[in-house]
Every structure is written in C-alpha cells, then in structure tokens.
Write a structure and sequence with these properties.
Blueprint: H1 14-27, H2 40-47, H3 51-63, E1 67-70, E2 74-77, H4 82-85, H5 98-105, H6 108-111, E3 120-121, H7 134-153, H8 162-174, E4 182-187, H9 189-201, E5 207-212, H10 216-224, E6 228-235, E7 238-239, H11 241-251, E8 255-260, H12 274-286, E9 291-294, E10 320-325, E11 337-342, H13 343-356, H14 362-373, H15 376-402, E12 407-409, E13 415-419, H16 425-434, E14 437-438, E15 440-441, E16 454-458, H17 464-482
Parallel strand pairs: 3-14, 5-6, 5-8, 8-9, 9-10
Antiparallel strand pairs: 1-2, 4-11, 6-7, 10-11, 12-13, 13-16, 15-16
Helix pairs in contact: 1-3, 2-3, 5-10, 7-14, 9-10, 15-17
The protein binds pyridoxal-5'-phosphate.
C-alpha cells in the first residue's frame, strides 16, 4: 500500500521526506498521470505528522510542476513520465510460428467471399436451427440441472461424463461396432478429435493418405501440423481404388494414417458401398496403415438402410480410430463429439485432453445425455431425415432442371457436389455474386490444385423457394459463361 514503506526520520524536515517519497513514486509510474493524492488531512492522519508538513510537501511538488490542484477537488499527479504515456507496440507477426500462419492462410471464413444480407447462400452445411427441438432441450436442461447441477458445474473428468460415454458405447454397439477392447474420449466436436490425434500421433513431415477432395477443415488441421497429404481421387463412382493401389505402392512405408469419410463425404455427399468399405479396410490392414474414420453425419441417410461404419469391421482389432460428432445430427453449437479407439490409446489421449482443455463442458454433456436418453432424439432424427431428405430431393431436381453439369454427386446429407464442364467455378462465383447467389468453390476441398471446375451446394438452411431461385441463377450464369 502507498506510504506503508515510508518511514519518517528526525534528521531531515518532514515535508522534504514526503516530497521525495512522492517524487519517487511518480517517477516509477506507481502514481499515474491525473491520479488523486490523499487529502492533506487524510495523509497527516495516516503518517501521524502535522497537516502543515503535508501542505508544504504538496506546495513544493506544485512548484516543481509534478502535481496540480483543482479548487474544491484536491491535488493530482501531473507527470510526463515516458513509461505511462508512450504506447507499447509489440509486433506479434514476428512471434507467429508455422502453425498460426497456416491456420490463418487456410481460414476460409476470413479469406473467402462473405455473405451479404439478402443473398442466397449455398455455402453452409450447418443444420437448420428452426428444426431444433427447443422445448425438449429446455426440459433436458432443467431436469439435468435439478438432478445434478452442482456436479455438472464443478470440475469433471477429462475422459468425459460417464453416463454419456456409456450411452455412446451402446450407440456404437447398435451400429455393429464391438467396443470391448476400445474406449471413448469426449471431445469438442470432430475438429478437436482430429486435432488431438494429429498433434499427438504424427510429426511434421509425416504422410497421410486422404480422399481428394475432402473436408477442408481436416486439410487445414493436417497441413497446419506440417503433414504431407497423399490424395486419392474420388470420381463419380466413389473412391478410385486404382489410384489408391498406386499410391499405396508408391508411399507404402511412409504413410502414417489414412483419413476417410465413408458416409456423406464432404464435399461430394457420397456414401461408400459396403463392398468398398471391406476393400478399403482390408487394404489398410494389409499395408498396416491405421484408419481415421470420420463418422460425422452417418445418421442422415434418406434412401436406404444404415451402412455399417468401417470401425465395425475392426472387431477385436485396434486399427481404426472413429471420430463421431453431434454437429450435423443435433446441435453444432454444443461442440460435442467423441473418439472411439483402442483402450490404451484413449487412456493416453485422456491425459492430453486434461493438459489442454481439461474436459468438454460437463453441463453440456449432461444436457445432451438427458436429451439423448429420452425418446426425443429418435423423434428428432426421424423428423430431420424427412425434412432434409425432401430438401435433398428438391435441390437435386432443381440442379437437374437448371444446371448443365458433367456430374452431380451426392447420396444424402446436406449438400450436393457438382462437376462442371469447362467452367471455372471461381469465375462462376464472381458472376453469381453479382446476382446475389454464393456457393463453395470446390477447389477449397482439394489437397492439390485440382477441382477448379467443381462446386458444393449446401441447402440445409434455405427455403425451397430460394433453392430453386439460386440454382436457376447458377444455371443461367453457366450458360452465359459457355455462350
Ligand atoms: C467431413 C466433416 N467431418 C466433421 C464435421 C463436423 O465437425 P465438428 O464436429 O467439429 O463441428 C464436418 C462439418 O462440416 C464435416 O464436414
């Protein structure tokens, strides 16, 4: 506290000692410009000296131009101390490492065309918030909060909320996955799950085999860690196994992982057939390349029965890391996903989770668990399948009617992927932007410089009217560019 370290001696006049003390405090910046000094009465009481001594000290300081008085208000510090007045300018650019540089360069939110109010945007593949079951979720919140609010608001376990983990074991069992030698770690969505694996199980310069095109955020996660991506083509028939075999032969000893999205692949929307899932799994097993399986929106199948995830072929083996997410089937804002993998690997990753974000919010996990375990989830899935299924069929019909595309890909999900003939989709986007329609240029999803004639159309948050209007404009613009 100010003045607590001032000891008055009897060798010098008191006012000189007080003046020197205040000068010292001001020069060190401990009494900033315009700060108010204690009143003479307060200070005389505090220091147990006469008020005249304080008055004399303040007068001397005033004469030196270090303090000033405002009638009826008091005495204030007046300092032109460099420490206080000059700006501190750190050049943070100089601190940036390759990780932050790459994430910034690849940040499409910052670097790509932005939506303007009134435009029809096919950019997003986020769920339609209007469908969210607000009443049921509110009930789950109140119920869980009443039952164990104190527990949920306190620190929890890094692995996750046990009832939710148990629920997910059961959920994966129902998908045909044998989880007996595996365990689950709760993560903040798919993206954190992938980042956890990549940042702990790979080192800069490692090789990862991935579909081309693939999820742009996954490309960003892998590239920001300095990994080399080996692209395997996807064409209108799905994964190109010939290309895969060539790449396996060429890079076989170098490849650390393969990353694959077998259901409603982003951006193509394709679903890998059961035969190809076996084929892919067996190839990876043969070459001893562990699989990172992205199961992000498996549930959104409209036209056929559920297809087993690749990790269900792994049974008692441990070669597949499955990453699940509730971002498309439920609420992306909750940021809840899970990693299902070998028990000892999950045990190690649990420590990483504890060392980074400690755990996923227990309150969020508790509410989600409550919501999932009553019948609301089943009802919601049924409702969304029908809703998005109708939208998917409608968007597909419009694309076929209005757009001359070489191939239209997509078996379900929340988007369609178009391969155009002789059209540069960046040029197309530029022209469509002028007509207030935007979409995702496909090159963003390629790990090489391909895809300039492709685009992704996300329709989940658009009305049928806007879907038709927007697709018609895209079709007309293609015709204009072709003419
Ligand atoms: C291929 C893919 N995986 C996963 C996700 C979900 O990521 P998250 O759970 O981090 O929201 C998305 C979202 O668009 C995606 O496209």
């Amino acid at each position: 506290m100010l003045f607590s370290d001032l000891t008055i001696n009897d060798k010098e006049p008191i006012y000189i000692q007080i003046k020197r003390y205040l000068e010292d405090m001001i020069s060190k910046g401990l009494l900033p410009h315009n700060s108010k000094l204690p009143s003479t009465r307060e200070l005389s009481l505090l220091l147990n000296v006469s008020r005249n001594s304080i008055l004399a000290a303040y007068e001397e300081l005033k004469l030196d131009g270090i303090v000033y008085s405002v009638s009826g208000k008091g005495t204030f510090v007046k300092c032109n101390n460099n420490i206080n007045n000059s700006n501190w300018k750190v050049n943070w650019r100089n601190f940036e490492n390759d990780y932050i540089k790459t994430t910034n360069e690849m940040d499409i939110i910052k670097n790509e065309i932005k939506w303007k109010s009134g435009q029809i945007s096919f950019k997003s593949i986020a769920p339609d918030g209007e469908l969210f079951d607000m009443e049921e979720l509110k009930k789950s919140f109140l119920n869980r909060f009443n039952l164990e609010g104190h527990k949920l608001l306190n620190y929890g376990y890094a692995q996750g909320y046990k009832p939710l983990i148990d629920y997910l074991h059961n959920y994966m069992n129902k998908k045909g996955v044998d989880t007996s030698n595996k365990d689950i770690l709760m993560v903040n969505g798919f993206t954190e799950g992938l980042n956890l694996i990549i940042s702990t199980l790979t080192t800069k310069g490692d090789y990862i085999l991935c579909e081309n095109p693939t999820h742009n955020t996954s490309i960003k996660v892998m590239k920001s860690h300095g990994l080399n991506l080996i692209p395997v083509s996807i064409n209108e028939n799905g994964l190109d196994f010939e290309d895969l075999s060539e790449k396996l032969e060429k890079y076989k000893d170098k490849i650390k992982f393969s990353y694959i999205t077998p259901s409603y692949h982003n951006p193509t929307g394709m679903v890998m057939s059961p035969e190809n899932r076996y084929k892919f799994y067996n190839l990876m097993k043969k070459y001893n390349i562990p699989i990172i399986e992205d199961g992000f929106n498996e549930e959104l199948l409209y036209s056929s029965s559920h297809i087993f995830p690749i990790c269900s072929l792994d049974n008692k083996s441990n070669g597949v890391i499955y990453i699940g997410s509730f971002s498309k089937i439920l609420f992306p804002g909750l940021r809840i996903g899970w990693l299902l993998a070998d028990k000892s690997l999950i045990n190690s990753l649990e420590s990483v989770k504890r060392a980074t974000t400690i755990h996923v919010s227990f309150l969020d996990q508790g509410i989600l668990y409550d919501y999932l375990q009553n019948s609301a989830f089943e009802k919601y899935i049924k409702k969304t399948r029908k809703y998005y299924g109708d939208k998917f069929n409608f968007a597909l019909k419009c694309v076929k009617k209005y757009i001359k595309a070489e191939h239209v890909l997509g078996d379900g999900g929340l988007h369609l992927f178009l391969i155009l003939k002789n059209i540069n989709s960046r040029k197309l986007l530029e022209e469509c932007y002028k007509k207030d329609v935007i979409f995702m240029p496909g090159d963003l999803f390629y790990v090489d410089d391909k895809g300039e004639n492709t685009l992704r159309l996300g329709f989940s948050r658009l009305s049928n009217e806007d879907i038709e209007k927007g697709i018609k404009i895209i079709g007309q613009t293609i015709d204009e560019l072709n003419s």
